[in-house]
Amino acid sequence: MNNVARIMGIPFPKITMEQTLELLGKVIDQDQAGLFHVVTGNPEIVMSCQNDKQLRSIIDEAGLITADGIGIVMVSRIKGGHLPERVTGCDLLIKMLEAGNRKKWSFYFLGADEVTNRRASEVITQTYPNVSVLGGHHGFFSEEEGLKIVEEIRSLEPDVLIVALGAPYAERWIHKHKSSLNAKIAIGVGGSLDIIAGKVKRAPEIWQKLHVEWLFRLINQPSRWRRQMILPRFAIRAIFFKESNK
Fold it and tell me: Which HAMAP family match (predicted)?
């Protein structure tokens, strides 16, 4: 299929951030039945899918997979897939808040610690006054508390459910409860609430344009080095991976 680029078997649609926002806007406007699950696919998720059949099934059932990271985009171009640009969870969240401010969308924010979750909601309310923040909850909850959270989200019926529980746990949680959440769209956004709340500093724009945001994070959070080691392993495996045409 010419409209997708396959990375280790995972089909990434060849769409830009603008096209992604247009698609998600239509999902909200059309008020279709069922939750539209957006997976921000990074190298970690792609690698995990190679050995985790359940996760691969969740990804296959998602409504949309975006290229979360320059590594995904670069591998696609080396292999002739030519993804147009990265569509990261953090960037997509900001763009959706901007669009939501114009169109008066409603959001629910799940994830991060209690203080960070509350601060992120405060910043969003101040920055995007036309966005309806229906509620939120920190990401450290028991199974019993999780069921209460699901019920709260179901009763509030947000246009967009933002899940910042980390990958791939966010994807598993969304999929497990998707029939009960009563939201129009659910997106896993990694540590984006930490950035909005000011707990974690995002790389300056010049670092982002040079595609070395990962290096900025590593310098500022040296404890991430083990996690960052997946990037060269992903690049080598993905480049030499024999893709199916299916």
Answer: TagA_TarA (MF_02070)
**pLDDT tens digits for 80-134?**
989 999 999 999 999 999 999 999 999 999 999 999 999 999 999 999 999 999 9
Tokens of 146: 């999780």
3-state secondary structure of 1: coil
In one letter, which amino acid is 81? G
Q: Please answer whether residues 129 and 101 qualify as being in contact, where contact means their C-beta atoms are separated by less than 8 angstroms.
A: yes
| Buried-exposed string 113-147: b where 16+ CB fall within 10 A, e elsewhere | eeebbebbbeebeeebeebbbbbbbbbeeeeeeee
Specify the DSSP element, H or E, that contains 222.
Answer: none
Identify the CA nearest to 21 among candidates 95, 106, 117. Answer: 95
Query: What sign has the CA pseudo-torsion 80, 83, 85, 91?
Result: negative
What whole-number distance in Å separates Cα of residue 187 and Cα of residue 174?
8
DSSP 8-state symbol, 15: -
